[in-house]
Amino acid sequence: MRRKDREVTDTGEILKTVDKAKILHLGLFDGAYPYVVPLHYGYEWKDGMFVFFLHSAGEGHKLDLIRNNPQVCVELECDVELVSGGETPCRYGCAYRSVIGRGTAEIVRNGPEKTRGLHLLMRNQTGRDFVIEEKMAESVTVIKVCVKEFTAKAKGMPPDG
Q1: What is the pTM of this model?
Q2: What's the CA gap between 1 and 27, in Å, rounded?
Q3: Mean pLDDT value across residues 39-56
Q4: How far apart are CA 4 and CA 151, in angstroms?
């Protein structure tokens, strides 16, 4: 990380960022160009690793790309605010907190893991616990992304307390 003054290393603060963000940007390989798609997510923190769960229709470009190359990048941000530079354009900036990581994506086939992933997604998005039945989960595809390698940054804002 180039800007060590913005690096966040405290696990609790990193988890707060992932809790507060509501959209995960999933970066996939698409030939000569990257393909990035914003998605709702749920997650677990296990053994120093993020396990993100995303949902999708049964077919589509992102699933084709995952099948072709499961190596992915994720990015999440929150607390994004413009910082005024007054009358000097080059003094404008942005306050933010972010997490970027690399990992591996897979399409979840196991029914109980699929329903658990959807349960976590709904909890993260709504703050509520829903009962997700396997029959409900059959109508969507669930993607699991395991992220062991990540960095976090913050600028212009104190950590949440």
Answers
A1: 0.89
A2: 19
A3: 96
A4: 11
